[in-house]
Task: structure prediction
Amino acid sequence: MRAFAQAPAPPEASAAPASGAGGEAVLPKEWSDAVGTLAEKIAIAARGAGAVSIDMRNISSLSSAESSAIRALFESRLRARHLAIVPSSQAGAAQLILTLSESRTAFVWAAEFSGSPAAGPNSVAIVSVDKSPGKPEQNAKQHITLDKRLVWQQPSRFLDVAVFDNPAGSPSYRVVLDPTEIVFYESSDAHWDKLPSTVATLRSSPWLRTVTGRFDTTTNEVWVWDGNPNAQNFPAVHCSGPLDDPKQIQCTPWKHNVLSVVPWWDFPGHEGATAAELWQTCGQGSIVLSTGNGDWTQPDSIQPYIVSESGATVIPAGDPMPMDGPVIYLTRQDQGNTARAIVRNLATGNYEAYIVTATCSQ
Result:
């Protein structure tokens, strides 16, 4: 995973943009695109604010001309999204801090929105961009092969599945997160038996159709979001306890912000798709899996990519793996080089869960 240091790099490490009329910096396209992405992310969080004041902090090796050009473009993109930029002295304005920092190989830019009482909760957005835009990547030599293993299927929709496979002679388990309960299954002969114990997720009737949820087997936690698009950072339910022991799992309402800053992946031809960054890397880059962007009536596929440390270079690194229907959920496993994918099989109508394994090779 990426670790961003704050210490400035030597001046020669920075690719100095050209200057335009009057000496102002002209940003490389990759940098301009990153500023636009940052503005888009933070504009979503600040859409109820109306007016914001901006304080910029440059703790990187960027020159004053470069940082000024970044700020000017950032403000322009926010205005294009109907946000008024006002002086910090104006009463009632929401506050926005733009921080320009860097790692050894990348510039790291963050925007922190502190909402007014009427503007909603605080939020943070981060982008990173290569210091030397356009340079070739050695990651192009790497190749990723994808394999899938069916681990669960059922006629009704489910949100996620936890897999506990044990050696031969011992039972294996599947823990299935349905929209209204956590259900447990046991198998010792390839036939799955539902156990009598279930755990209700605090709702006897279904949530909105956009309800989502996930297991975290490393922390023994379960999160359920109720599908409200205005509360994407606020889970409705939090459960904790050993996931293979229903008697110890406790679920409670949860309205606290659990926002975590993750890269915003938007690959050419896959705009609006679902993507997951795996824990394991390939060469010098991260492994990111992306679905297609068709609707839920079409077969789908999962495409592997290698993304440079800075996030500025994206390389398709293997053949797409076809699926038998739309991938409606994709998330990395809690460790290693695997992900979980839930697919609606268009031929059978079943919902299926797969473990997708990414193997990196030269």
